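[job 4471] stage=fold_predict status=RUNNING
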Amino acid sequence: MNMPTFDELRELAQRDPEGFEILRAELIEDCIRQSSGRNRRRLRGLQFVIEARRRIASTPMRALLDIQAMMFDSLLGLQRTLLSQQRPTEPPAPTRVRVLHFRRSRSSVD
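[job 4471] inference complete, writing structure tokens
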């Protein structure tokens, strides 16, 4: 399904809110269906949570802020994970070393 432009979506939402919601659900389902199999279940779960937040929000703006907070929390968790993996670790101590002995040359002694 082709993605409508922002202006087309805005016009549809103003003219036919019910049609907009149907199209929105179809576009979301199409996106989930096109994702890899291992991500589909997770995306469906996430969409379920998003829809629940939208239903219980007192206003569309409250729903937007709640969903935005979810996204921000997820981003912070990802950032923490990435940063914890980037911390430098102590290099492992070598188990065997070979010591080389050098003699001083006579010219460097003078």
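[job 4471] summary: The mean pLDDT is 89.
[job 4471] exit 0
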